[in-house]
Amino acid sequence: MNEILFLIADLWLIFAGFFFGWRFIRRYQNYFLGIECLVVATSATNFLLWSLLSGDPDNPMYTIAYFLDAFSRSFGFTLVLILGLMMVTHRYRPRLWHEIGAFALAFLGGFVLIALHQDGVYGVGPATFFLVTNVIASLFVLYFAVRVWQAGARGWAVATVIITVVAMYIALIYDFFPWPFDDAQRTLFYAAALATWGTQGFVYYYAYRALHAHNARVGTRRAARPEAARA
């Protein structure tokens, strides 16, 4: 039963990452959120294949899994997430070097932190770093939720707060407080984590869409005012 839950959660994350990642790029030209979602989906795909076909820590797919995990938990689903949301909260328009620099930093973070990974766990230092970056990103997401609420999409705002709090809980127990009732492979935890991250992509996309539509309506009204005044 635990394995079935893990499989369903991983497939959900794969779908959400690829589907909403492509939509962020195609509809909003938001490469920050789009590429990060695609990276998460790729990571989930690799994790699933490794779990089904190997499960061997010496398999290169295991190293790839932890590199992509470190990529997202260091600067991917943290700094990159913040920059991506700023495109709708602050009308931020990144230059190409902003996008390249942010992902280069995430790659660097992944390489450095994977070197500190030993025997399936991170040390206290990297684990604390992951937790701090998660808290910082989560605080900005909560601000994003306030903006979504003010835009009138209160359901998506509430959903954003709930899934963000759940994701913060996942980040807290990831390295520090493993569930005592879980098995040795932490199957239940990973099922919960994968389901949470997939739902984050789903909720954040529709909250982003709601705020983007609100901004467009406000911009249209402001642009129409000078025309009305001249008439």
Describe the overall structure.
It is a single chain. With 231 residues, the chain is mainly α. It has one domain: Rhopdopsin 7-helix transmembrane proteins, CATH 1.20.1070. The chain contains 7 helices and no strands. Helix 1 runs antiparallel to helix 2 (31-53) and helix 1 (2-28) packs parallel to helix 7 (187-230). It starts with a helix and ends with a helix.
Task: Summarize this entry quickly.
This protein has about 230 residues and is mainly α. The chain has helices at about 1-30, 30-55, 60-90, 95-115, 125-150, 155-175, 185-230.
Key features of this structure:
mainly alpha; 7 helices; 84% helix
Q: What's the pLDDT, averaged over the residues?
A: 88
Radius of gyration: 19 Å
Helix fraction bin: over 70%
Instruction: Give the overall form.
Output: globular
Structural class: mainly alpha
Number of helices: 7
* Number of distinct beta strands: 0
Largest sheet: none
User: Which residues form runs of ≥5 with pLDDT under 50?
Assistant: none
CATH topology: Rhopdopsin 7-helix transmembrane proteins
In angstroms, what separates the terminal alpha carbons?
A: 68 Å
Secondary-structure element order, as H and E? HHHHHHH
Beta-strand portion reads under 5%
CATH architecture name: Up-down Bundle
User: Class in CATH?
Assistant: Mainly Alpha
Q: How many domains in all?
A: 1
